[in-house]
């Protein structure tokens, strides 16, 4: 018997979330069952090394709407999120993290607003970050200020990856040539009618964060270099500033020589060398980030590889683009069984 097309797909990227699975399933299923319409939950196992795969297999036996997409290796949160969103079948696609800091109960309000107001995008916006450390709040505020300056005011402040997308928005994402888009920037850039639903951010239900400082810094660099050429212009201005400072120092040196008051001048020389060296290294680093992105694009490697999809059917490769991470033709029952062990 063919199941009806889901009205809602909920995409949940997961990496080593064994401890939070029971509570996540309990809260998420209560919300979705309450919608009284067909749905699917697409759990994307991003190469977990704990009991996440076994836990998902156990949940599938009792929860027929649960669908498991297993990636061959850990490809990162954004890659897992993109893989799930592009393979979701629902008329509306909601993405949410597994840690329950974003409440599943807000999904019903997102769906209501999208339908009532004809919105293609509804962002979950954090009304309160008191559960975060002061450092986390400070860095998050700086990130969103920077993104709004680079991309525009259409980037909602305090909105992460908890959002609802219409089928039209998902199809627009599928048309983009980028292999690993940063959705929190690309989605606002698409320009679809959007709204917001605010919520109180909760403590992580179980386990530990998968976004330490190093990954947050990496996300910031990825966001900037993938969406703006402003850093290259900053490098140009820094170079011009360095040239101006050197010009001033040359004039000072010539005047001092003409006045006969020249000294060894090691402090000014020392400062000038340090300044010029720092500017050059910074500019080289900025150029390197962009060269690395060009190199990655030229390689043409996909951002992820799908090992198995428990909901695979004739439409499973609908998101396939040349060179993307769609499953190989050899993926079959053996790999499917392996994913459920």
Automatic annotation (TrEMBL):
One of its GO terms (molecular function) is glycosyltransferase activity. Keywords: Glycosyltransferase, Membrane, Transferase, Transmembrane, Transmembrane helix. The chain crosses the membrane at residues 237-258, 270-292. It is found in: Membrane. Residues 9-173 form the Glycosyltransferase 2-like domain. It is a multi-pass membrane protein. Residues 315-341 are annotated as: Disordered. Its main location: membrane. One of its GO terms (cellular component) is plasma membrane. The keyword Cytoplasm does not apply. Residues 324-334 have a biased composition (Low complexity). Belongs to the glycosyltransferase 2 family. This is Dolichol-phosphate mannosyltransferase.
């Amino acid at each position: 018997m063919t199941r009806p097309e889901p009205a809602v797909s909920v995409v949940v990227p997961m990496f080593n979330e064994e401890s939070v699975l029971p509570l996540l399933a309990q809260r998420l299923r209560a919300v979705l069952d309450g919608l009284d319409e067909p749905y699917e939950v697409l759990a994307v196992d991003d190469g977990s090394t704990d009991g996440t795969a076994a836990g998902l297999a156990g949940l599938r036996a009792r929860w027929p709407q649960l669908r498991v997409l297993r990636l061959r290796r850990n490809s990162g949160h954004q890659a897992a999120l993109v893989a799930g969103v592009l393979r979701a079948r629902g008329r509306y696609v909601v993405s949410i993290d597994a840690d329950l800091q974003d409440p599943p109960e807000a999904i019903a309000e997102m769906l209501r607003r999208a339908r009532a107001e004809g919105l293609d995008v509804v962002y979950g916006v954090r009304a309160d970050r008191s559960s975060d450390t002061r450092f986390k709040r400070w860095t998050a505020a700086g990130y969103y200020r920077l993104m709004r300056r680079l991309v525009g005011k259409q980037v909602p402040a305090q909105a992460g990856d908890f959002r609802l997308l219409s089928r039209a928005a998902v199809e627009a994402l599928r048309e983009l040539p980028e292999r690993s888009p940063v959705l929190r920037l690309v989605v606002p850039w698409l320009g679809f009618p959007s709204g917001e639903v605010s919520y109180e951010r909760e403590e992580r239900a179980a386990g530990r964060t998968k976004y330490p400082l190093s990954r947050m810094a990496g996300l910031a660099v990825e966001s900037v270099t993938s969406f703006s050429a402003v850093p290259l212009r900053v490098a140009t201005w820094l170079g011009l500033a360095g040239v101006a400072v050197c010009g001033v120092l040359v004039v000072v040196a010539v005047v001092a020589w003409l006045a006969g008051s020249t000294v060894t001048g090691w402090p000014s020389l020392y400062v000038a060398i340090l300044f010029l060296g720092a500017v050059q290294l910074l500019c080289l680093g900025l150029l390197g980030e962009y060269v690395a992105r060009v190199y990655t694009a030229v390689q043409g490697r996909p951002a992820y590889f799908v090992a198995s999809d428990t909901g695979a059917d004739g439409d499973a490769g609908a998101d396939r683009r040349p060179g993307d991470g769609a499953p190989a033709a050899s993926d079959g029952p053996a790999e499917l069984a392996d994913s459920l062990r």
